[in-house]
Amino acid sequence: AGSTAASVFEAARAALLPEGYPGSVRPEYLRFQVYDTIQAACSYLRAILSTGAILKASGVGEAAASPMAAAVAWVLRDGFGMCGSLLFASLVGVGFDENVKEWRLFADLINDVGLTLNMLAPMAGERFFLVAALGSTCTSICGMVAGATRASITAHFALSGNLADVSAKEGAQETAVTLVGLLVGSYLFAPLVGESAPAVWTAFALLTALHVYANWQGVGCLALLWLNRHRAVLASRDWAASAAPPSDAPPEALSPAALSRLERPWGPFLSSLQGPRLGARLPHLCASAEDVCALRDAFAGERYWLRLDPAGRAHVMLSAAADGEDALRALLHSALCAGASGGAAGSGGAVPLLAAERRAIEQSRARAEAAWPKFSSALLEAGWEAAALRNPPLGWRFTCE
Description:
This protein is mainly alpha-helical.
């Protein structure tokens, strides 16, 4: 019996886990997959409930209902969902690579919204088709966003050139979850819940709560090894504030695992509103041609210009030749200016660059140049794949001759 159980265990391991596990994947792989399995099971069981609600509202099971009308309504509902996902992809597709964790969480939350709308559609009366179409749109967006982010997450887990194996085993895990969900849903879940509306909504609410929790924990354990804008802001601020002088700060606090514990799903959004503004336009920094010449001289040799607004927020203009390393240097410079202020455009226009502010800019640039070698070395020592932003902003750029 013991040998049989061991054989079954080894067969399951070979079918569901990458070859060479655990050495062939990242340390957080198993934890993420466990939570991913839980959320997938919750989604499958809730899909049974929401699909039943849609079919019942479409007239399935009623003698007076038209099968063709129900089929047409179902196809149109899916068509609206596909159109919505295409529109969404065209609007935000570039952001998937930069904020993988946040978009992965968004995908499952928008799926929760879609399934809830499907549950509510039968109560919408004449607006049934509209609510059902919105629900289908949300679930279609979920599938598109989840697929886009899954590629980056799978590539992150693959340690030994085994991307195809990791991807295949993830597919096998999804298939196993679907089979288990099919059995549980058919022989246990559906008979237990029955047709009682209170029981159906209670089960749906509990599964949704578990789904949100599993996604929060799963996404939160990911320690991605590349710097996006939000992680770069956290790293540069921690470096600037953790020691005096900043260049002597230890690298341990900059590790991907340490910064992943500081990340929040709303972090990139807040960084875009309150953090350093990468890709600022010339009028945000300069009020006159004299200011342009002054900043050109102050940042000679650099591929960015920087100026603070009265609230202390840094406005950064990148050159056409700037890459991810230049963007990270600008963010470090911004962090070293914490507590200062300037005359860049905040709510109004930029004010003239006075001599005192120009001296402050030159001094902060000198500090940034001195800190950069140790900061970049500490990032590499801490485990980041590069001391640079993987996806520098593609907004406004300048050329200087």
